[in-house]
Amino acid sequence: MMNTVRKSENLLPFPVISAAANGDTTAMCAILKHYEGYIAKLCTRTLKDDAGNTYSYVDEEMRNRLQVRLITRTLAFHVGYNYRIPLFHIVIVRYIYMRMLPNLLL
Questions:
Q1: How far, in whole angstroms, is CA 63 from its chain's centroid?
Q2: What is the DSSP letter of 47?
Q3: pTM of the full predicted structure?
Q4: Which of 18, 39, 42, 99 has CA atoms 20 to 30 A from the CA of 63?
Q5: Phi-psi sector, 80: left (phi>0), alpha (psi -120 to 50), beta
Q6: What is the pLDDT of residue 1?
Q7: DSSP secondary structure string, 55-99?
Q8: pLDDT single digits (tens) 8-29
């Protein structure tokens, strides 16, 4: 059985989401801080040099795109609906889908 206490510890409080959706910069910074590690994980790329060594790095352009997307979607979020899916997961799935769509059409 899933431990619901641990799951609720990882969620952002609703007042923070509500304040960020209304334009509060402190709340928006809290949301960006909350998803900072997740964004970095999604933007981590592996590079292989001529000698065959592999390096991992964070793609800063993609990180900035995801942060901007998170901010715009948070500001467009309608407080008053009872969403059960975390907001950022919807944004990421849509972003990945839109990036992969041109490759699927080829």
A1: 9
A2: E
A3: 0.65
A4: 18
A5: left
A6: 45
A7: EEEE-HHHHHHHHHHHHHHHHT--BTB---S-HHHHHHHHHHHHH
A8: 567 888 888 888 988 899 999 9
